[in-house]
Amino acid sequence: MTTSTEQGTEPEAESGELAGHSVYRDPEILDQLERRARIAARNSPCGVADLRTGTIQLDKAEQDEESAVAEGGVFEQLDEAPVGDERDGWNLREIIPATFTDLGAWRQRRAVWANASLFHLTRSPVYLWRGVSIAALGARVGTRDAWSHLFATEFGEIADKVRRANAGPEHIADLRADRRKEGKQRRREPVTVYALTGCTSYVAALIALGQTWGLVLAVPALIPLFGLLYALGHRELVRRAPDGAFAFLDQVQPMGSDAPVTDERITRALRDIRLITAEQEIRAVGLGTRDELENTTIEFKLPAGVVCKALRGKAEQFAGALGLPLERIDLLQGETPNDVVLWVSAIVPFSGPAPVSLLVEADRWSIWDGVPFGSTRKSTRKTLQLLWSSMLFGGAQGYGKTSAMRLPAAAGVLDPQCRILLADFKGGADWEELEGIAHRAIIGADPAAVDEFIDLVDELIEEMDARFAKIRKMPKAQRPDMRLTPAMAEAHGMPVLMFLIDEIQEAFGVLLARKEGLKEFAAVVEKLARLIRRGRACGLIIVAAAQRPSAKSVPTDFRDVILKRYSVHTVDDTSSDMILGDGTAKRGHTAAGLGVIGVGILAEESGAEKLQTDLITPQQFERICIRGRALRVEAGTLTGYAASGLLSVSGILAQIRKAFEESGAAELGSSDIARLLHRQDPAAGWEPREGESDKAWSSRVGARLGREIEEALDGTGKTLDRVKVTTLAGAEGRGFRRSDVTFVLGA
């Protein structure tokens, strides 16, 4: 057999002879033979991993001078990697049990220990009396047993039995003699002598300690004696009740409603509501944990035959047995039907003030990022994505319905690429600030306003059809799912449309009162339903509100196509279902009797839950609208109704705006503006007159500013009044705010 190499073909036998001959022990020849052996191993079927040569055959050719003929390529391991310390691969997190590294588990442990310590501390007088009683029993029993042993009293009992059996007196005399003999022998035993000596020494030491140092140090010295007597008493109690369990410490009971929830407390509660028997108990799965807000989560397994569904059916009784309101607990099923995950809130949910919305301080927002809406009772944030589903708000007056509706409105206002359409059939002042933003604004529920609303619905249907026509003409790479995207909206001039409709039942009522109202009403409802069903894919959001949308006032054909609904307090389950959907109350979610302002039920495609909405006050909403108008003016997206109110910025108004731009301040006093106006036009007479005091000059220029601003705004219906501000010098004075100037000018 021959082996092919770079140099040609040589018989293996020849190589072996050369290798064995002493003349070929030259180092260079041996190196050459080693190289040939490497090449032979690489090209052999077994050359994938050869321990002698340290070679690995690879899939891709990586040839060098010595392995050019190897078709698969070779990687040579010339040097072995040094063997490191085994400890280099250790991972302490894998060694230490997770229960010792879980911060939530340690929070729960601390709470349990603190509760147990407080409970036992309050029971300490009982424990002290119990210990003294047991020690007294031990003293009595110990004295009795020692006397019986030292004086052999058992012989007396035998003698009494012999006397009752009418035996002869000689037997009784023998027993008495044996008793004296046995007692004398026992009293002479070394153990007895040592014990008596120890007791005598202990008593003498106590007396000496008391006389020398006082009773203060003598009392601690009694602790060993007390411990011995307690042990004797405890042994006697166990002897008297061998089948009973004796415990010195009482079982820990929860100290108030804020006490930690443990498996023992859950077991007692389940027994109280008779879901399990006195012999049954739960089995905790892992350790209970506490989050940063002190909310507790504990998972446990119910006894066989008891399922989570049965416990959830008795949730209210279970919460009462735990000493908690129902709002503070949540029951979820685990992996199996008898696995339960119990969540307990540290406080009554929604008992605190509503959190301020993120939109209040946001400079701008993108409606594509959703609407920050509120917090669940587990303190998790809830963000609504309204681009693909419209929303209906409902509930009684005075419970925060309009305040909740401001949240999606504010998100749309702060997005300059979102076009706001407003239909306020209430006709009040709730949406007054939005009129400076809205592309269309319909105020009131008079017949003319309702007709304008119908025309707007028709216009939106035309806009929807036109958008879908544009989307169909786009390449499929740009419209992967036939939905509007931010890139499509910007490139093709299709901004998101948010249609806000407040108290929609008022418009429907006007329609139904007409001669042909029923037919017209049905047509409008069908058009709105079509907009909701199809418009969401092309960027149309409808946000409507109604107090009690019954089948007559707000038909189900309109309500059923709205996927997201929010209801504040209602008077009954029927009213709640009219807003949230039929059967929602039966599934355990009802707005009936909520009675808390700002708290409601949110129903979505995935289910319903109670939450507390974020807060935007009317004053904050006004400032948001001012920012939103400025954003649209800057972006060139202020159109329609809002754009019709733009002022021609010239004269004193243009000069004041320029003064704010030069200073970069948010507030300017009248004197600050006068100095900046003088810098713009030195001949305009804004500088102090000769001999004029600062106070007189400030008063004069303030009056002049007010007069010229009033003249500039004459006929516009707008005003710009002087208010208390902080001047550039840091003092308080009268002047103007930049936000007010921006709002008045619309720029």
What does this structure look like?
The protein is of the alpha+beta class. The protein has 4 domains: 2-76, no CATH class; 124-240, no CATH class; 358-621, P-loop containing nucleotide triphosphate hydrolases (Rossmann fold), CATH 3.40.50.300; 647-745, no CATH class. It contains 26 helices and 23 strands. The strands form 5 sheets. The chain has a 10-stranded mixed β-sheet with strand order 12-11-20-19-18-13-17-16-14-15. Strands 6, 7, 8, 9 and 10 form a 5-stranded antiparallel β-sheet that branches. The model is unreliable at 1-24 and 48-81 (pLDDT under 50).
CATH architecture of the largest domain: 3-Layer(aba) Sandwich
Tally of DSSP β-strands: 23
Query: How would you classify the helix and strand content by structural class?
Result: alpha+beta
* Overall radius of gyration: 46 Å
What name does CATH use for the topology of the largest domain? Rossmann fold
Major sheet characteristics: 10 strands, mixed
- Strand percentage lies at 5-15%
The percent of residues in helical segments reads: 40-55%
Instruction: Provide the low-confidence segments as ranges.
Output: 1-24, 48-81
Count of domain modules: 4
Query: Could you state the CATH homologous superfamily of the largest domain?
Result: P-loop containing nucleotide triphosphate hydrolases
